[in-house]
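Hey, I'm writing a tutorial for new members on how sequence and structure tokens pair up, and I'd like a real worked example in the thread rather than a made-up one. If someone can provide the structure for the chain below, I'll link this post from the tutorial.
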Amino acid sequence: MRWLPLLFVALLLSATPVPAAPSGDANAVDALADRYWQHWLERDNFLRAQLGLPIETIRPIAFANADADAGFAQNVLDALHAIDAAKLDHDRWLTYRTLTYMATNEVAGRTYFWLQQQATPYAGGAQIASIVQALTELRFTSPADAQRYESLLHQYAAFVSSMRDFLAGQHQRGIVLPNVETDAAQTVFEGYAQPAQSATLIPDAVRLSALSPAQRAALRASSQSIVTGEIVPAFQSVVAYLQGPYRVGAPAGVGLSQYPGGPEYYRYLVVANTTLTVTPEQLHAEGVHAVAQLNRELGGIAREVGFRGDLKAFKHFLAHDPQFYVKTTEQFGERLEVYVHRAADAAPKYFAHMP
């Protein structure tokens, strides 16, 4: 889901033209699009990084933030409900639908706040890696940048601590990962809990070359102090919690259905991730049907090329025979470019305005 904000904001912008004489409803959609753009731009560091903008804040994982975001999104939904979508031109209708989708999901972020996973390697690990990358790439051109960096380091420590608080809040609500997943999460946090892992957060002389010698020394000293006094202890606290108290009552099985509100959250995720109004059971049945159809087609290909063996053997052949593997990085790049060009050729069919 991490790419969804960027994807849909890009769609929102590319699908909003500036006509000669827009109607009142069209103007309202444009204004809401601008509001939502600023909303995402202020709080989504992933989007800011993609646009080359400096990061100003690192938001902790807190229900208060989810509540504030949901309140903003609900106001947008209320404004959208007052617009007659039937009177919009097609591009603005797309913007209207995109805004509805985004705002609806943001409201749901409050409803299902405690059911979201924030500390797993694919969620928490990815967030931490993104923050670390932003911090280590920050450029220093003035004392103001040094002050901002110190502030961000403090906020980073608070973010890690908020993960500990979030896990405790989930535990109180009976939402606990099975031990096998907790083991994986613990491994990630143990790595970051090593002082050497956070050493990259102390800027070196090359990054600080635009500052005076005194400013460089001060920033390096303050960074070292924040890393050793706040950031590393925050990671150690998460590790200690995952090692002990968090595991009490851990379930033997996996899946959202075992948690309070889990089945409802799963049904929401199906709609949010597919935009299809189908039940999980219907989606699973469709998947089973699609796999069966693919297997039939693959069996036909095996017969066509004269392969001797059953479908299982043919799949093993495709997965392991050296002829299907590239041997150089150049070949790997060329293979990826095939899909890039295929997507580039198809994109104009679905987007009126290309970047």
